[in-house]
Specification:
This protein is α+β, with helices and mostly antiparallel strands. The chain is built from five helices and 13 strands.
């Protein structure tokens, strides 16, 4: 019996597309139930691998989960340009309990721009190592996050260690991915644990600031190569934000 090669090729292509499509969130899919041992520390060790979804606009892998008290979001960023933007300007995650893809309450982190650990003058061979260590120090020393739109929480910067139950952490894993974790209490969003209403989430990789561009250009003009986060290929995309919205319902356990 002869088998049509075109049929085989088409079937293989369709299977590949289905597998590829599974990496993209569909509106109103349920969250994952949060890992029992979850800890907001910028490490992905307790999360199931791979992360559930990928977004090509922002170059982010992510999973959204919840338990009876909090919504948890983890983001893994392998893309170098997205890492640069987040290290300079942060990632903003918005949550709208009404399910509308606009507005909502938001958290921006990590805020590394107000952390100063110095930029030592080091030999060329050591610069990459020092740059990596400097980025880890910056993330470890972040003291504030920015919040907006929460009922009962003042807009603006609040301490990382705050009394509202909002938790954030960011770090680099062994593979060089930037990992960002967020926990937001359901109560500060006014969400009932048994709610079946989809929640809208916005992930926004903020643009590097024009001041960053001027700073990097000035360093290059002077022949300086300080290993600061954000230094790298000076491309057009770095100075524009990238974002997407998705909807997911709460997991019931």
């Amino acid at each position: 019996m002869k088998i049509n090669k075109a049929v085989i090729t088409g079937a293989g292509l369709m299977a590949g597309l289905l597998l590829y499509g599974n990496a993209y969130a569909q509106d109103s899919e349920p969250n994952k139930w949060a890992p029992a041992n979850i800890k907001i520390d910028g490490q992905a060790t307790e999360w199931p691998k791979p992360l559930q979804f990928y977004n090509n606009t922002t170059k982010l892998f992510y999973t959204i989960a919840n338990d009876k008290e909090n919504i948890y979001i983890i983001v893994s960023v392998p893309d170098a340009q997205s890492q640069m933007k987040i290290m300079r300007s942060g990632i903003t995650i918005s949550l709208n309990p009404d399910g509308k893809k606009k507005g909502g309450a938001s958290v921006t982190f990590p805020l590394t721009y107000n952390v100063n650990t110095g930029a030592p003058d080091v030999p060329e061979a050591s610069r990459a190592l020092i740059a990596g260590e400097l980025k880890r120090q910056l993330l470890a020393n972040v003291k504030e996050i920015k919040v907006d739109g929460f009922t009962g929480i003042p807009d603006g910067n609040i301490p990382v260690q705050n009394t509202f139950g909002i938790q954030t952490a960011s770090s680099y894993d062994a593979a060089g991915n930037l990992v960002c974790e967020l926990a937001v209490p359901l109560k500060v969003l006014g969400i009932n644990t048994l709610s079946e209403q989809p929640i809208a989430y916005r992930f926004k990789v903020n643009a590097m600031k024009r001041e960053d561009k001027k700073e990097l250009e000035a360093k290059r003009a002077k022949g300086e190569h300080a290993p600061m986060p954000g230094e790298g290929p000076d491309t057009f995309a770095l100075y524009f934000s990238a974002d997407f919205w998705t909807r997911q319902t709460l997991a019931i356990h």
